[in-house]
Amino acid sequence: MSEKYVVAIDQGTTSTRCIVFDRRGQLVSLAQQEHKQHFPRPGWVEHDAMEIWRNVERLAPRVLSRAGIGLGQVAAVGIANQRETTVIWDRRTGVPVGRAIIWQDTRTDALVHALGDARDAGAVSDISGLPLATYFSGPRLRWMLDHTPGLRARAERGEVICGTMETWLIWNLTGRAQHVTDVTNASRTMLLDVRALDWSARALDFFGIPRAMLPEVRASIGAFGTATEGFPGVRIGAALGDQQAALFGQTCFTPGEAKCTYGTGSFLLLNTGAELVRSEHGLLSTVAYQIEGEPAAYALEGSIAITGSLVQWFRDQLELISSAPEIETLARTVADNGGCYIVPAFSGLYAPYWRSEARGVIVGLTSYITKGHLARAVLEATAWQTREVVDAMNTDSGLTLTTLKVDGGMTADHLLMQMITDVLDVPVVRPLAAETVSLGAAYAAGLAVGYWPDLDGLRRNWHTAAQWMPAMDPRLRTTEYANWRRAVERTFDWIQPA
Amino acid sequence: MPGTVQAIERAAAILRTLAGGPGRLGLSEIARTLDLAKGTTHGILRTLQLVGFVEQDRVSGQYQLGGALLHLGTSFLDINELRSRSINWADPLAARSGESVRIGTVLEGRVLVVHHVFRPDDTFQTLDVGALLPLHATALGKVLLAYRAGGPVPELERFTRLTLTDPRALSGALEGVREAGWAAEIEEFLLGQAAVAAPIRGYGGLVVGAIGVSGPVDRLCDSHYRPRPSLVGYVRDAARAISRDLGATR
Ligand SMILES: Nc1ncnc2c1ncn2[C@@H]1O[C@H](COP(=O)(O)OP(=O)(O)O)[C@@H](O)[C@H]1O
Ligand SMILES: [Mg+2]
User: Fold this and answer.
1) Closest-CA residue in chain A for B115?
2) Boundaries of each HTH iclR-type domain copy (chain B) (predicted)?
């Protein structure tokens, strides 16, 4: 009898990965491909959805051959994806109408501002569990319909359809048979009634989105059809937003369990169980996952837009380093930040502020500052932004976080991990699976097809791979946090209404 | 990788090998260090000589870096990049072996631990990234020594009865490491402890680090006091996977 495996597709912001996992949840093989980031104007960020689909088609056979297995040995495929990124395409030709607009894109700034004054703005916020912001898909869809001649009429006739990246991938994987999304991705559009778990007529009205163009909403763990492309003959068992997938991969199945994933941006999610908690401190209420036939689990989320992408900016735009990990090498050439702080409000500020008019600043510059100090300030920005969302989480949930579970590409950075434990004053632990997003998608898909029997079995796979302990002088922590907050205030009100 | 030229990767690896050595190196020594055929190595050396990157001593026939290279400096793979690029393979190695994993490179005559994955049993452990270990008494160190042509001989300090302190014995052991493609350490550094390690290669076969597992002798070794073959297999698989990601071709 040949051994079976589960494959995850992690369609991330910077790259797409396919990973084969074994029954113990261990990585067997990996294939990865970066895609092009398009920055056509300040604040605009786009991807070519066709390029991303072609990458998946290329990665699928590669990851199987690296694992030395055939399609018949794949029990299921699970998908995790960058969230809120939105694309519209022609139902007949399969060709996208323009590029996909990325979650970090702020072109809907003025639109969001105007909508904020409209009647029903408060109600839509309450229905969707989200503050009105450029971050979410709803305003983005409206912008596309407004700015492409004739598109609205075609959408109303159902000639063009839309979706987030999992919808786009599943539609292509199933040979255009399935136009579906899952509850976690749908909960990031502002169009979903987050309690009823279906599209809200009132929200659709508010944004002016024709229902005919939207995918069908399904449970995250269940049935998304069988692939005919990429992994022909294999069942697609699950789809989840990448951050929810990471929460699942970290086996945070119980209310009160939380994780933070450090990638392009960083996202702290706390499982709140069957209860939808509304935040008073700038956190989002979102769906954590839903197993078919069961009630959904919810989460509180602290979203930070720019963390790893600040390192990328340092590498690609400033060209001060040649690879992301070199930020640590450079930062270690100095003992402290030299009084310099970088607040990367490139897309405005997300949690806990939600200030879309904010823009980035570097403060405290003197002739003393070297590129080493700047590198330190880059990493400290991630640490302090984590502190702000953890503070909000502690206040909202009434629980106090006692350890922080972390994952994502930036957890390879030991200086950063030490900074995070230092500013939070709690231990930071990394599990024995750096690719937690993919693992979560694999777990979910494997559960859907019975490859894994239950959640408890998965929990037993979780082990500590590394742990960092706080070692910062409490007085220094206090003064540095105060400095950080003063730096943050300097980002506010930069973009003035036209 | 489309659009890359293997000969240039190998040329760079040869230059790094020469830069890391004490002075001049012979053709066969260079070829063996990089696991390249002698003929191939010779062709590349001649080309490098032509462009002034390498000089050949007329008397001994040995090679050394050329004057044209003096201002190019010598920097190996950034250690933080090595960790980032290895993390996906070090985790499964810890899971499969049930032991702790470390990755090391050479720093000033010692092994610098650049990555550490805890033994996956959820007992309390502390990170020892940044720790320095002896080259001659550890599996990681022996791998790093074995693939470093003509490096200075470390001081052979004795840690246990089994530590290799005789230079001839050590050089024999290193020859064995090169033949086998992996190294073992059995109670040579710490009593009751054993380890297995294999080389991580970058482009052109250049050894940029070593990855290994360590733990108690009775878990790592079989009844003949030799590392369990399955364990050796896991370590070598992980080393090969990282090497492939780093662009090594074989
Ligand atoms: N050693 C490191 N130190 C700091 N940042 C890093 C390091 N390695 C990777 N990164 C950053 O992490 C991000 C990639 O992480 P990943 O989890 O793959 O992101 P995503 O899933 O959002 O594409 C990049 O933005 C990169 O700049
Ligand atoms: Mg990701």
Assistant:
1) A412
2) 5-67
Task: Check whether B200 has a pLDDT greater than 70.
Answer: yes
Q: Provide the number of CB pairs (under 8 Å) joining chain A to chain B.
A: 75
Q: Measured between beta carbons, which residues in chain A are less than 8 angstroms from residue B83?
A: 325, 412, 414
Measure the CA–CA gap between A340 and A364, rounded to whole angstroms.
5
**Across-strand partners of B105?**
B112
Q: Check if CATH label 1.10.10.10 holds for domain B6-71.
A: yes
Domain boundaries, chain B: 6-71, 79-245
Could you give the 3-state DSSP secondary structure of residue A462? coil
Report how far residue A55's alpha carbon sits from residue A49's, in angstroms, rounded to the nearest whole number: 10
Residues of B in contact with A329 (CB under 8 A): 78-80
| pLDDT-based confidence at residue B75 (cuts at 50, 70, 90) | very low
Highest mean pLDDT among A118-132, A268-282, A475-489: A475-489
Tell me whether residue A92 is annotated as binding.
Answer: no
- For residue A312, give the nearest of A378, A218, A392 by alpha carbon: A378
Q: What is the pLDDT of residue B159?
A: 92
The answer, yes or no, to whether any atom of ligand 1 lies below 6 A from the CB of B80, is: yes
Mean per-residue pLDDT over chain B, rounded: 89
CATH topology for the B79-245 domain: Beta-Lactamase (3.30.450)
Q: How far apart are CA A336 and CA B151, in angstroms?
A: 36
- Distance, CA of A450 to CA of A445 (rounded, Å): 9
- Answer whether A308 contacts ligand 1 (Cβ < 6 A): yes
Strands B110-117 and B100-107 turn out to be: antiparallel
Q: Is the minimum distance from the CB of A241 to ligand 1 under 6 angstroms?
A: no
CATH number of A5-242: 3.30.420.40
For ligand 1, atom 2, name the residue with the nearest CA.
Answer: A325
Q: Does residue A444 have a pLDDT over 50?
A: yes
Can you give the pLDDT at residue B69?
Answer: 67
Picking from B85, B96, B129, the nearest residue to A414 by CB comes out as B129
Ligand 1 atom closest to A325 (CA)? 1
pLDDT of residue B73: 38
CB A304 within 8 A of CB A352: no
A201 CB contacts (<8 Å, ≥6 apart)? A211
Which residue's CA lies nearest to atom 18 of ligand 1?
A: A409
Average pLDDT on A382-391 reads 96
The mean pLDDT value for A356-361 works out to 91
Q: How far is the CA of A196 from the centre of ligand 2 (A)?
A: 28
E strands, B44-156, in order: 54-56, 63-65, 100-107, 110-117, 132-134
Q: Each residue of B82-132: pLDDT tens digit?
A: 999 999 999 999 999 999 999 999 988 899 999 999 999 989 999 999 999
Q: Is A312 annotated as a binding residue?
A: yes
B107 CB within 8 Å of a chain A CB: no
ipTM over 0.85: yes
Could you tell me if the CB of A325 is within 6 A of ligand 1? yes
Residue B231 Cα, gap to closest chain A Cα (Å): 16
B95 → closest Cβ in A325, A411, A432: A432
**Is the CB of A13 inside a 6 Å radius of any atom of ligand 1?**
yes
Q: Is the pLDDT of residue B149 over 70?
A: no
Residue B150 clears pLDDT 80, i.e. is over it: no
